[in-house]
Design a protein that fits this description.
227 residues, mainly alpha, 83% helix, Tol-Pal_TolQ, membrane, cell membrane
Length: 227
């Protein structure tokens, strides 16, 4: 009887360890693709919102009016959150007349840096998982391959006359594990590199905004508040 050399046929004929390796890699691949689509959507949204807010901010709108608009929203992210926290802290310090310009700016800058850390952490969420899948999947697949080939040759040693048709299915099922490892790893590595670069660009935009916003506030209060 000729052995079924289709993918599913080889899977069902594989040993328990090789099956476990294949199922593990399949699970990692599915989880990776789910994260890839999720992160892609989040980053596209963050990039669009960043561009839109920058245009709004530098259009000459009154900062107090802009703060009121943003505060009215149920949730804020990205540059809106940085602006909201920074302006809120600045207004609080100025209202309470706590110190001079230097104290105002340090407090405002500190509030925005805290928010920056939270926003960056959110953007980087699950990226470490993609990096992990990209690095370990080939080794998991290689382990399945080595185990499958080892079993194939052990079975071959128990017969007096060996033929290629006897060892081919075992080697084929073993090589599938390597292929699945690469299938899980390659998209994860490519996505991680792309997303990490986009997160870095967004973080740079956030940092630049913090400095520009701080300079703007500093210029507005220098004339009226003692240093």
């Amino acid at each position: 009887m000729q052995a079924d050399i289709s993918f599913f046929g080889l899977f069902w004929e594989a040993s328990f360890i090789v099956k476990l390796v294949m199922l593990t890699l399949l699970g990692l691949s599915i989880a990776s693709w789910a994260i890839i689509f999720q992160r892609r959507s989040i980053l596209i949204k963050a990039e669009k919102e960043t561009k839109a807010f920058e245009q709004r901010f530098w259009s000459g709108v009154d900062l107090g009016h802009l703060y009121t608009e943003i505060t009215a929203k149920l949730s804020t992210e990205g540059l809106e959150a940085l602006f909201k926290d920074g302006f809120k802290e600045f207004a609080r310090l100025k209202k309470n007349s706590v110190g001079g310009v230097q104290v105002y700016m340090e407090g405002t800058h500190r509030a925005m840096r805290v928010r920056l850390s939270k926003e960056t952490e959110e953007l980087e969420s699950n990226l470490s998982f993609l990096a992990t899948v990209g690095s370990i999947s080939p080794y998991i697949g290689l382990f399945g391959t080595v185990w499958g080939i080892m079993n194939a040759f052990l079975a071959l040693g128990q017969v007096q006359q060996a033929t290629l048709s006897m060892v081919a299915p075992g080697i084929a099922e073993a090589l599938i594990a390597t292929a699945m490892g690469l299938f899980a790893a390659i998209p994860s590595v490519l996505a991680y590199n792309s997303f990490a670069r986009r997160v870095e660009m967004l973080e740079t935009s956030y940092i630049n905004f913090i400095e520009e916003f701080s300079n703007l506030l500093h210029r507005e209060v220098t004339a009226s508040v003692p240093v």
